[in-house]
Amino acid sequence: MRLIGAIHSGPVDRDLRDYLRVLRKRKWYLVLTLIVAVGLAAVFTAQAPRVYEAGASLFVGQRQIPREDVETDARVAVAVSDLSFRLLSSYSEILASRNISEAAIGEFQLDISPRALRESVRARPIPNTQIIALTVSNSDPSFAQRVTNGIADVFVREVQRLDPAAGGGDPVVNVTILDRATVPTDPVSPQPVRNVLIAVALGLAAGIGLIYLVDRLDVTVKHSTEVERLGLPVLGNVPTLDIPRDVLYLEQDPQGLGGEAFRKLRTSLGFLGVELPLRTILVTSPGPTEGKTTIALNLAAAFAFGGLRTLLIEGDLRRPSLHLMFGMRGTKGLTTAIVGQVTQADAVTPTDIPNLSVMLAGAIPPNPVELLGSEQMSELLDRLKKQFDVLIIDSPPLIPVADPAVLASRCDGVVLVARSGRTDRRRLADSAQIIERVGGRLLGIVLNFIRRGDADQDYGYYYQYATVPSSDESPAAPQRATRG
User: Fold this and answer.
1) I need a surface site. Which of 64, 167, 348, 435 has the fewest CB within 10 A?
2) How many Cα atoms are found within 13 Å in the side-chain-facing hemisphere of 451?
3) C-alpha span between 262 and 303 (Å, rounded)
């Protein structure tokens, strides 16, 4: 099966479900940022000085015009009314001016600098009224009350001095104190509830930003949809289970997620072999520690449980490990059968699992690539296909060495194993291209070690099979594979 379309290794497009999955998987980043943000807000609130605010209200009004003068002084009345409104903003500035502050300090003997006093004074006109709100902030509530009233008194006298009717007569504009300041009892700062709410909002924003930054920098494949967006077919997903790597999933988890994953993988390969039978299947991975040997072992067991005569071949002649899984020892195996030191029958060892045999690596050669690419290797595979229905070959990683590329051209198909959260998208795409360049047939990707959070969507429907035995195997679990 040729790959359709160009294989790319850049950032992949995502839908809403992908973003929600990222949030769920990295939710501890969000929890951590929230804890830090709220903690910092609590420390800031506890250490911040208490600030009290005293307030007074001043009314700005025009001179009262006698009723008998209303008609003759109508224009004057309108002008005076308009003047009072226009003076509101100017009076607000005067209230917070340096002259008012210095006058208040001198008259009431305040222990504060003019600059500090000006910074604590705030005067603002209340919209749609003729009232100015005057407030003074200070850590001492009594001091704030005394300064507020002092500034109000000084300002009333200053307005009389600056009145437009300075030439004599009644003042055009009157300023009176409506409400004098009282001693405040509750601080206006800090505000614990507001600070915590702000901290929660900032913590959420920082946490979500951190999550997607980390995810953006993470170039590994973590879910089957990411593999599909690379243009690569997905054969199956294998979840992370708490069982040793040398134990068969179909032995320890026959009716659970692990067993069902390999039955599904076997079925997928069966569909791919309708037109071109898959007699020899190579199992490899882009790099080491991605679980290819475990996948090869369990896939071979799945075919054997399905009633097919299956041979598991250890094609990793550099770091063989199947002999450790089966508890076998000896130098008879693939290499000695290729060079003719032992017969084919002597190189094959049956196991306690029905229909499953294994051919170990044998003696480690100095030239694995030449040996695997030889005509003797091809002839050995042809002879083995007459004895077995399916050959599963476990090979070294594809990127570091050329051994899998040599074997890929001699097999009916290649299963590429990727480890969720570890396999680089670029290396996975490069591995698929290598298989195509050597003329191999990439059957698809098996995403291994799927985390529980990512596996829920792919494996949710498996739970309904948990108590239903598969039709191709008995309910009793088979024994661990041992030397026959």
Assistant:
1) 167
2) 13
3) 9
Cα within 13 Å of Cα(14), Cβ side: 17
- What is the residue-wise DSSP string for 397-454? -TTT-SHHHHHHTTSSEEEEEEETTTSBHHHHHHHHHHHHHTT--EEEEEEEEE-HHH
Domain span(s) for CATH 3.30.70.1130 in the chain: 52-178
Write the single-letter amino acid at 254: P
Closest CA to 389 of 372, 412, 408: 412
The CATH fold assigned to 52-178 is Alpha-Beta Plaits (3.30.70)
Q: Is 109 left (phi over 0), alpha (psi -120 to 50) or beta?
A: left
Q: List the structure tokens of 38.
A: 């709220």
Radius of gyration for the chain, computed over Cα atoms and rounded to the nearest angstrom: 42
> Quick one: tokens of 137?
């902030």
- Check residue 171 and report its DSSP letter: -
- The predicted-structure confidence for 69-81, as pLDDT tens digits, reads as follows 545 555 555 555 5
What is the CATH number that goes with domain 220-465? Answer: 3.40.50.300
Greatest mean pLDDT among 37-41, 153-157, 213-217: 37-41
Q: Rounded CA gap, 455 and 241, in Å?
A: 11
Q: Rounded to a whole number, what is the largest CA-CA distance in the chain?
A: 135
Q: 227-236 pLDDT, tens per residue? A: 988 899 999 8
Q: In what order do the strands lie in the sheet with 442-450?
A: 234-239, 442-450, 413-419, 280-284, 390-394, 310-314, 356-359, 349-350
Those residues whose C-beta lies under 8 Å from the C-beta of residue 130, and which sit 6 or more positions away, are 59, 60, 61, 84, 85, 88
Structure tokens at 443: 């059957």
The pLDDT value recorded for residue 470 is 38
* DSSP β-ladder status, 131-138 and 121-125: antiparallel
The token duo for 4 is 């359709």
Q: What is the pLDDT of residues 396-431, one digit of tens each?
A: 999 999 999 999 989 999 999 999 989 999 999 999
Q: How many Å apart are CA 61 and CA 59, to the nearest integer?
A: 6
